[in-house]
Specification:
The structure is a homodimer of 210-residue chains.
Chain A: E1 4-11, E2 15-17, H1 36-39, H2 42-47, H3 57-67, E3 69-75, H4 76-79, E4 103-107, E5 115-116, E6 122-126, H5 130-141, E7 145-150, H6 152-160, E8 166-172, E9 180-181, E10 191-198, E11 203-209
């Protein structure tokens, strides 16, 4: 049975991305620091069919959670740095073999033909809003889960709409001081923790609506 | 060996108290919601020599952490609702037998004679600033720990000064939307989790400086 899930690294001060996102800083200034635990993990490299990183509970978590996902949804800003009409040369941040290996639905106000990549990823551009994207992602995911990948504003929209069944926060014990906060202006959220995994670098907490 | 510790309940959106603190709402609007897990715990009632609440891992944690403490430090706002010169009738929020059962150092700009209460608590008013209060609390604590009790701005001052050895966050899975944030304007904090305790209501994470 499909769950709608979202997994986000978050700082102690609540940021899921740094300020001033740009082509050089897709995660915003300092934003990469939120993901160092992932870059240290073998499970992260495996998504790219590469070797590197270390085996660890963090790494196992990445592999397990990624394997649950049958389709992804992301905001346009997570797919591309530009705004407005599409630059048709832009094929995502991830090179010719993106780590998704599954259908990816990209929210946008601008239509674009689907973009099949190597390794099983196809980017489909959805102009019908978050409900339409979710409907299509559910159909594509089969029995597996739908992941709301990011960025912050996309996850926030699904959270506000009560459409997320499981939200996993990777709590990174640093402060960023500025950037995009996940829980700003999401209304009255009430969750319950269903699984906690502690590692030396980060604390993973899975939540479901209470 | 004395550690300087601080234990705070914090919402998903980073608030440790609600907005508009007043004599009717000492923890700010909605602020009591951060402490419901505590009010459900037998360990909380035991601090007041009362019966109530349930035995649970949360309750054990309260008892264990409280017993480590040999002296407390708190900001004036945690002791009293008023500002300016002291209202000498005010003897704290906790009645004649406060739950501290230990010396409590209250930061203030206004001198006042020490206030001995029943049950072993004495409130001592410190006008010399956070370093002076810590020095006096260390002397009073003996081998036990010094707790920085709150509110947010007091803990923030000690955190910014690098004086906290162990910060325990009780992560309450709700949003408050407004209030006092612990990690606003604390500079570049970098911690490492040293102990994680999961309960159905709340996730307790102890951090030390990295």
């Amino acid at each position: 049975m499909t769950s709608v899930i979202s997994n986000l690294s978050i700082s102690l001060d609540g940021y899921v991305a740094g300020p001033n996102q740009s082509i050089d800083n897709p995660l915003g200034e300092q934003g990469l620091r939120l993901h160092e635990w992932m870059f240290a993990s073998a499970g992260f490299y495996r998504l790219f069919d590469e070797e590197g990183g270390e085996e660890s509970p963090d790494s196992d978590l990445i592999t397990r959670d990624w394997n649950r996902i049958g389709a992804h949804i992301m905001g346009r800003n997570m797919f591309a740095p530009g705004r407005g009409e599409w630059d048709m040369e832009w094929r995502g941040w991830w090179g010719e073999v993106p780590p998704y290996h599954a259908p990816v639905f990209v929210l946008s106000h601008y239509p674009r033909e689907p973009l099949p990549m190597d390794g099983g990823t196809t980017f489909t551009f959805v102009t019908g809003g978050i409900d339409d994207a979710l409907k299509r992602a559910r159909a594509a995911a089969g029995e597996r889960d739908v992941s709301i990948g990011g960025g912050a504003s996309t996850v926030r929209q699904y959270l506000k709409a009560g459409l997320i069944d499981e939200l996993t926060l990777h709590i990174v014990p640093i402060t960023l001081g500025a950037g995009e906060r996940l829980f700003d202006d999401v209304g009255d959220v009430k969750l319950r923790p269903t699984e906690v995994l502690a590692s030396p670098a980060v604390t993973h907490i899975a939540y479901r609506p209470d």
